[in-house]
Design goal:
This protein is of the alpha/beta class. It has 14 helices and 13 strands. Helix content is about 35%, strand content about 20%.
């Protein structure tokens, strides 16, 4: 099948784009695309905000690709733009299935289906669910009885909204291929609107803390699942040698949850002589002097804490470089 995966147009009007100047790749869509390509499907990713696409330009991209299926991602701050993008698609291709995924519609699938423009909601982790969905649609078309056999879906039928059993989390993240970055506008991802090329990586999924203001533990689960340091370093090597990128940003909320993992990761960076800098998330109660020194020696230039870290770091010798 020909599958188009999209970030909706208009997202660039949000504060993080207009003020912070941050443009980051849709790693979730790229990971789904990689799995679909492994199964023999043709995939196109339309990253509308990075490409500065207007609604009409977005529709033109859809028309030029002539997809059999369209998938749209929607976070809570972008959900109404996602619904609008689905409406644009239905105006052009009323019979093509529109699938939506992401944390917002995972929590509120009925809301998405009530718009009249979304046919199917993929709930939770999307790679395997989307792959099975596309395979099923290829064989059976939009057969609602066939969809009931798949896990992790919501869709509207004659009896109302049907929600299938949740899909189990992927325990072995190393089994997933690297995100399909060849489908992304890699030169367009910036930081603070500066021409700093950044390579975004996700080392693991899940968080044990369940903070009420954060979707991570609810969307990815309370159990932390880490990829092997070897696989993560191999992916970074791809960024260094294929995309000529030296700045790496980890999308994980908390990379330092396993000190053993961090230590091995930094050892591999040194063994492979990867001259990079990287930023990552952490918690104040997860760091100590030894870990901070390891991070600094490995090229970490910035830690993003989930709470105030000033008192905890007081007196830590970072060799003239302060990590904040």
């Amino acid at each position: 099948m020909r599958v188009l995966l999209a970030v909706p147009p208009g997202v660039e009007e949000l504060e993080i784009y207009k003020i912070a100047g941050v443009r980051s790749p849709p790693l979730g869509l790229a990971s789904i695309a990689a799995v679909l390509e492994e199964r023999g499907h043709d995939v196109k990713i339309v990253d509308s905000p990075t490409l500065n696409l207007s609604p009409s330009s977005f529709v033109s991209e859809v028309k030029s690709w002539k997809p059999d299926l369209i998938g749209i991602t929607g976070l809570t701050p972008t959900i109404y733009r996602a619904y609008k993008a689905a409406e644009y698609v239905k105006m052009v291709y009323p019979d093509i299935p529109v699938v939506m995924g992401g944390p917002h519609v995972t929590a509120l699938p009925e809301e998405a289906l009530s718009t009249g423009y979304v046919d199917i909601v993929v709930m939770g982790e999307g790679e395997l669910t989307m792959a099975e969905l596309v395979d099923t649609l290829e064989r059976n078309g939009l057969d609602l009885e066939a969809l009931k056999e798949l896990k992790g879906l919501a869709f509207k039928g004659r009896e109302g909204v049907s929600v299938t059993p949740p899909r189990e989390f992927i325990t072995d993240l190393d089994s997933l291929p690297n995100p399909a970055r060849h489908l992304l506008p890699m030169s367009g991802y910036t930081f603070l609107d500066k021409p700093i090329r950044v390579f975004h990586v996700m080392a693991g999924r899940g968080c044990p803390y369940g903070c009420i203001y954060c979707t991570t533990s609810y969307f990815w689960g309370r159990k932390v699942r880490l990829r092997s340091p070897e696989r993560v370093v191999e992916e970074i090597e791809e960024g260094v040698y294929k995309y000529k990128v030296r700045n790496v940003a980890f999308a994980d909320d908390e990379l330092t949850i396993s000190k053993r993992w961090v230590k091995r990761f930094i050892e591999l960076l040194k063994e492979r002589k990867l001259d990079i800098t990287f930023t990552c998330g952490s918690r104040v109660d997860h760091v100590n002097r030894e870990l901070l020194r390891d991070l600094k020696e490995g090229g970490c230039t910035c830690l993003l804490y989930t709470s105030d870290a000033a008192d905890e770091l007081d007196g830590v010798d970072l060799g003239g470089r302060r990590i904040i």
